[in-house]
Design goal:
The complex is a heterodimer of chains A (419) and B (512). In chain A, 40% of the residues lie in helices and 11% in strands. Chain A is an alpha/beta fold and 419 residues long. In chain B, a hairpin with a 2-residue loop joins strand 3 and strand 4. Classes of the chains: A alpha/beta (419), B mainly alpha (512).
Chain lengths: 419, 512
């Protein structure tokens, strides 16, 4: 024993010298990590300025019908509480809300007030207090921060990576396609040709690894054509998809659900990503809003439905955040639509959620309460919502949240008690 | 001090580039990628090769018979009408009891199924025709890009088409993106910016895409008549009229300022946007009543009367002269020169371009009052634009077009390149927002996109390389820009197809 002790001490000292002491000594923390390693967060960005008053119409607010006129919802909306309901297309979200697994955040905004899509999306995704202050996304910096303590992987679904997930950490990206022939020489030759290429080298390696994982992740799903259609054809008006009709819409909904299930499939893989982002376009409803949002929200609902079903037992470890760059004018404009506004509605869903009512305060739609006599007044900084989830669900360190993940945001308090 | 040192370094790097390198840069960076023989042609006088492509009369038009946006809008209106009628008939079929009397009692009503299909067919047929229109417009445009000898002219044009984005993400504008480029953009790309701006903003496609066509002055004759239940609101119950009272839509006004002229930091406020939207009321497209369907019109009775204050300037012109005066002023603002010259430098040279280059372009813009031919000439002359290190990662469209050029061919069918563009995130004519397509590497170099580019290169090589030597194709495509590493990899390839695919996927071919 005596002979053994010095050597053991020596071993520890050597380990400490290499910065390994924490790992060796913190056994209880490692056990806690097992639970933590399963925690998942998914962020859905809805681009174009999603109208909060359509996502969760405040049907019980006495000013709502007067402001919205023909665009106002009545009994067809899916009731939540005395004030709020959900858009009739959000049936899956409504079922989750009834089960205490979805809540609305009805008056939330980024710190940006310019009513420009592109500036507001930039602020939403970089997590910075203002535009052009940083070029990486807050979700990428979250992964960077967490990677110091445990292995965390992230994926974006779609042919291009959203700014939200761009940055120092090379994250995965995937969209439905044909898959890679494992026997082909080209991937290997290219990896060699890219060995000194800081952009293409890591991207190709990551892409090939994700393709391998995709074989399992999307097994049993119509991961090819159906999801491909969802990715590309499921937009408002359909672009090329001039036809459609009820049957087309149904097909679009199924494809969107498959896309959500594919994302879930990746997250259920052993060693798969625990952080994910997906971005949906087409919410800019200046004219003909009713039809446009019926289509877009059905699509959103189906993606969320797919994520929910696809995650299966992992749903209880998951929080999904749905956010947009800004809300729209409280009043209907002259063309049965709404123009760029400020406060909007975010959604927070997941089996990890604590049941509860609305998140944040409702400022009401009284004329005196409107922001600049025009928009829903924000009562909550979007960063507070994100910070709360990251702090309590993902165990991101508070100092990092205040300084690195959301720069200069110490004054923005995390919304606690959501999970 | 640091700046000076950097500048010296830049100049010396440029000075080192010999004529063959300059020719390779001219064709790959300023142009759309080399066709076999093109670099050799440019090597005689790389700057002159590009300058000769500047042409007052504007860009080339894609091959084929031009169809006007007016015809296309008419077709779309017919399609919508048929669809509406088909829907009505469908409803009638589903509820035979209600429909039978109106239809004059059809005894075969019991068999509603086949009938429904018959009714739906013409709609589907027209829908396919519209889709076909978009595909053939885009194919013609890509054929032009893949085959033109004046590829700098075409790249310059594509820059402006993206600056003034009209997208097929809206069904109604799908079939007019092509005609819009042909009518508003192509003739004006080497004229004065003010004229290009006027042509783009007053074009029916833009007016439709950015929701201007229904925007109505709240105090216009039209609006007050409708409020009184006048000729336009006959039969409407007062309550209903109030619910649907016509008014402003500020989409176009905001995007003109934010995206097309002064930029988001251009110094305008929400009040300026709303005032501009008021000024533009009346700008719309003709309807069936006035027999001008699909043409840009100005409706005095929908125009908000009175003077407008925008960015500190009072506009008391009447009618559409008010919009013209505002556009003229926006075009002339120094913020506009700065914003757009920054974009030009980012498009042609680097995601983060040398400030000296932007300053040079801005000077040219201001001193020539927005003469785009002069700005293009200044870009060609700018030493900062000729750095041999390629800084731009190709967008999917640039990658596909340059692949066809490297193979010395052009696409024969939409199918041969349309779907891959969609898979790479750049669906033909369908920019995700009025901001247009992004042009930075981070947007296009996601892992999934690189894998899909590789898959395209594989399939494309199989179909195009035939019995040609990929080493020669590589020398033709990249000239002096071909690196020893890539040349070696191509030389070692086990098949011609593999060699050509390696060329297309090489770091230097992926960039420009």
């Amino acid at each position: 024993m005596n002979a053994f002790t010095p050597s053991r001490r020596g071993l520890l000292a050597t380990a400490a010298g290499f910065g390994l002491s924490l790992q060796l000594l913190a056994v209880p923390a490692v056990a806690a990590d097992a639970a933590l390693n399963k925690k998942k967060v998914i962020v859905v960005i809805c681009r174009g300025g999603m109208d909060g008053l359509s996502v969760a119409p405040p049907v019980g607010d006495s000013d709502y019908h007067g402001l919205r006129g023909a665009l106002a919802f009545g009994s067809e909306a899916l009731p939540l509480d005395g004030t709020f309901a959900l858009h009739p297309q959000l049936t899956a979200v409504h079922a989750m809300a009834k089960a205490g697994e979805a809540r609305i955040v009805p008056a939330v905004a980024t710190p940006d007030r310019a009513r420009s899509h592109f500036e507001a999306q930039d602020v939403l995704e970089t997590g910075a207090p203002g535009v052009y202050s940083t070029t990486s996304g807050w979700l990428n910096r979250t992964v960077e921060t967490l990677s110091a303590h445990r292995k965390v992987d992230a994926i974006s679904i779609g042919p291009t990576a959203p700014l939200l997930l761009r940055g120092k950490v090379q994250t995965a990206s995937w969209s439905p396609g044909r898959g890679v022939d494992a026997e082909a020489r080209l991937p290997t030759l290219l990896q060699d040709l890219y060995r000194n290429d800081a952009l293409l080298g890591p991207a190709l390696a990551r892409g090939l690894a994700t393709e391998t994982m995709a074989k399992d992740a999307t097994a049993g799903l119509d991961g090819g054509q159906g999801a491909m259609m969802a990715q590309n054809g499921g937009k408002a008006g359909g672009g090329f998809k001039a036809g459609g009709g009820a049957q087309g819409a149904q097909g679009g909904r199924e494809a969107a659900k498959t896309l959500g299930e594919s994302l879930a499939g990746f997250m259920r893989e052993p060693g798969g990503p625990t952080v994910a982002a997906i971005s949906l376009d087409g919410f800019d409803s200046h004219a003909g809003q009713a039809g446009l949002l019926t289509q877009r929200l059905a699509y959103l609902d189906a993606v969320l439905d797919g994520v929910h079903t696809g995650l299966g037992p992992e749903w209880k470890n998951t929080v999904v955040l749905v956010a947009t760059e800004f809300g729209r004018t409280a009043r209907t404009n002259g063309t049965q639509g709404t123009d760029h506004g400020t406060g909007s509605t975010a959604l927070i869903l997941g089996g990890a959620l604590k049941p509860g009512g609305i998140v944040g305060d409702w400022p009401t739609l009284k004329q005196s309460a409107l922001f600049e006599n025009r928009d829903v007044a924000p009562t909550l900084d979007m960063r507070g919502l994100f910070k709360g989830v990251l702090a309590e669900h993902m165990a991101v360190d508070r100092t990092a949240l205040d300084n690195t993940v959301f720069p200069s945001s110490a004054a923005v308090k995390p919304v606690l008690g959501l999970v | 001090m640091t700046v000076d040192r950097d500048k010296r370094k830049e100049t010396s790097a440029v000075a080192l580039a010999d004529k063959d390198m300059l020719a390779a840069i001219a064709v790959t960076r300023f142009g759309l990628g080399a066709k076999p023989g093109e670099i050799a042609e440019a090597a005689r006088d790389p700057h002159g090769f590009l300058r000769a492509q500047i042409r007052r009369s504007g860009a080339d038009q894609p091959p084929g018979q031009p169809v006007t946006s007016r015809e296309r809008m008419g077709e779309f209106r017919d399609y919508q009408r048929e669809r509406r009628e088909a829907r009505l008939e469908k409803t009638a079929d589903v509820r035979p009891a209600a429909a039978a009397p109106a239809n004059g009692a059809d005894p075969t009503m019991a068999d509603a199924r086949p009938k429904r299909r018959d009714v739906a067919d013409p709609v589907k047929a027209v829908g396919n025709m519209l889709r076909e229109d978009i595909s053939s417009d885009f194919t013609a445009r890509t054929q032009l890009a893949a085959s033109t000898d004046a590829a700098f002219r075409e790249r310059w044009t594509l820059f402006w088409a993206n600056h003034f984005t009209v997208s097929a993400t809206k069904a109604i504008t799908g079939t007019v993106v092509g005609p819009f480029e042909q009518e508003a953009i192509r003739p004006n790309v080497f004229g004065h910016f003010e004229d290009l701006l006027g042509a783009a903003e007053s074009h029916p496609a833009m007016l439709t895409y950015l929701d201007q066509i229904q925007s109505i002055g709240p105090d216009s004759q039209f609006a007050s008549m409708q409020r009184r239940g006048g000729p336009f609101g006959v039969g409407a119950r007062p309550q209903q009229a109030a619910l649907r009272s016509p008014g402003l839509n500020e989409n176009l006004a905001r995007e003109i300022m934010e995206l097309h002229t002064v930029g988001v930091n251009g110094g305008y406020t929400q009040a300026d946007v709303t005032e501009f939207a008021r000024a533009m009321t009346g700008l719309s497209i003709g309807n069936e009543r006035d027999g001008n369907y699909g043409a840009a019109v100005f409706r005095e009775q929908a125009h908000e009367p009175g003077a407008r204050m925008i960015m500190g300037v009072r506009y008391d012109q009447r009618g559409k002269e008010q919009t013209n005066a505002i556009l003229t002023d926006l075009a002339a603002k120094p913020q506009t020169a700065r914003f757009i010259c920054g974009k030009i430098a980012r498009h042609f040279v680097a995601d983060d371009p040398p400030p000296a280059l932007v300053a040079r372009l801005e000077d040219a813009w201001r001193s020539s009052k927005g003469d785009l031919a002069y700005v293009a000439d200044t870009l060609i002359s700018a030493p900062e634009a000729w750095d041999p290190t390629p800084a731009k990662f190709k967008t999917p469209y640039e990658f596909i077009v340059s692949s066809f050029r490297a193979a010395g061919g052009q696409p024969q069918t939409f199918q041969s390149f349309g779907p891959i563009l969609t898979a790479l995130g750049q669906k033909p004519f369908s920019a995700p927002s009025p901001k247009g397509w992004p042009e930075d590497a981070q947007s296009w170099a996601a892992p999934d996109a690189i894998v899909k580019r590789m898959q395209f290169a594989q399939a494309f090589s199989v179909n195009t390389v035939r019995d040609r030597d990929p080493k020669i194709l590589a020398a033709d495509a990249l000239g002096e820009r071909l690196t020893p590493d890539t040349a070696k990899a191509i030389a070692r390839a086990e098949s011609r197809q593999e060699g050509f695919a390696l060329l297309l996927m090489s770091p230097e071919f992926q960039r420009r």
